[in-house]
Amino acid sequence: MILPARASLETRIKAAGFLLREGWHWLTSLGLLVAGVVLLPFLPLGVGLYPVPRLLQTLNLLGARAQARAAAYTAAVVPFDRRRLDGRHTFGEVAALVSSPETKRDASWLLFHCAFALLAGCLAVGLPLAAVLYVFAAPWWPLFPPQAPLELAFPVTSWLAAAATVLLGVAYGVTGWMLLPWLARRLSTGTLAILSPRRYDELSRRIQDLSAARASALTAHAAELRRIERELHDGAQNRLVGVVMMLGLAQRAAETDPAAAVPFIGRAQDAATEALAGLREAVHDIYPPILDELGLGGAASALTSRSPIPCSLDVHGLLRAPAAVESAAYFVLAEALTNAAKHSDASRIGVVLRTESVPGEDLLVIRVNDDGRGGAAIPPRTASGSGVGTGLATGTGLAGIARRAAAFGGTLRVTSPSGGPTELRVDLPCDF
């Protein structure tokens, strides 16, 4: 059990430590503010295309760390992921980054921090030091010569002045005792209030993400329709035309020599078989029939059994999901296994499929990990969520997985330090 006096002292020490850290970080904030003031006027000239994104990346990082410090002090929960800035950007993208709500929040925090953090840090140091100095130094005034008296708030040349100095030190101590926790609370809550997105901003960002996902899904759908049309035109249709031609030739041959019609009928049968195989392949790419026959767990087992790299599969706790979600999960897993086989140089792959319930929704979770070389990254234009790469591949493979997940409001996260191991995680919201 912590005694009230001890708890109160620990609260003051914690507040002073928080204010001291913020005062120290004030130097970084001031340097960033000066750099921003110098660089931003050059943005319309195109000079800032390289330094401004780096500046915004630094601002974003400082804001994230300040938010983490404030959340740790107040024991608050930050319920959202901050944006990650990386990659090269065009002039329009840089302008959009500068005017984005997140950048405005980060810039507002920077001004707030530069204005108040130094003052708070100085008070956190000055008030306790002044209290200790005034209380303990004043009684020693007789040791100082008359021509060089003890100088504190005023020259201490008598016991009356020493008593006044001690009282002033006590006042400093009481002020610090009362003021420092209040300052720490105001600075931490102000930081969280500025950096946390407003409800309107959250909804706007969600609408933008959903609009982008919808546009990506429509583009992918149109491309898929063109692919199916091309496969039917170049594959099944040509083979069916061949069937018709072979049957026509067989009919003509049968009128004069029935035996001569047999080769044409055989060739027609071969063409019909090839056309049927092409149709099955086209239909499989639209919706794999194995999902209806065996479910997602069975379909995943079939995929992993065909992988050239040994795979383990864990489907414990997997529930049936809507057909569209299971189809997306199937193709996500197929693409992940294909990319791992092509690029990871792994000796084993682990696959986990399960259902997770989180507040407000249920998730179908696909996890693919390997012991390969790692070191690749999600393309920045398509990354959803956060991550630093994957040994599964960099480029169209992960981009396709990210787009497929985003079409359902899902997320793709990958972690892959250079040298591995690699883990890919896709969360697909669904209503079970």
Automatic annotation (TrEMBL):
EC no. given is: 2.7.13.3
User: Mind telling me which residue stretches traverse the membrane in this protein?
Assistant: 26-50, 109-136, 156-180
Q: What class of enzyme is it?
A: transferase
| A GO cellular component annotation in the UniProt record | membrane
Task: Spell out the reaction equation it catalyses.
Answer: ATP + protein L-histidine = ADP + protein N-phospho-L-histidine
> What keywords does the record list, in alphabetical order?
ATP-binding, Kinase, Membrane, Nucleotide-binding, Phosphoprotein, Transferase, Transmembrane, Transmembrane helix, Two-component regulatory system
Name one molecular function that GO assigns to this entry: phosphorelay sensor kinase activity
Q: Which InterPro entries match?
A: HATPase_C_sf (IPR036890), HATPase_dom (IPR003594), Put_sensor_dom (IPR025828), Sensor_HK_TwoCompSys (IPR050482), Sig_transdc_His_kin_sub3_dim/P (IPR011712)
The family database entries (Pfam families) matched by this protein are listed as: HATPase_c, HisKA_3, Sensor
Q: Where is the Histidine kinase/HSP90-like ATPase domain?
A: 324-432
Name of the protein in its database record: histidine kinase
Origin species, per record, is Arthrobacter gengyunqii
Supply the source organism's classification: Bacteria, Bacillati, Actinomycetota, Actinomycetes, Micrococcales
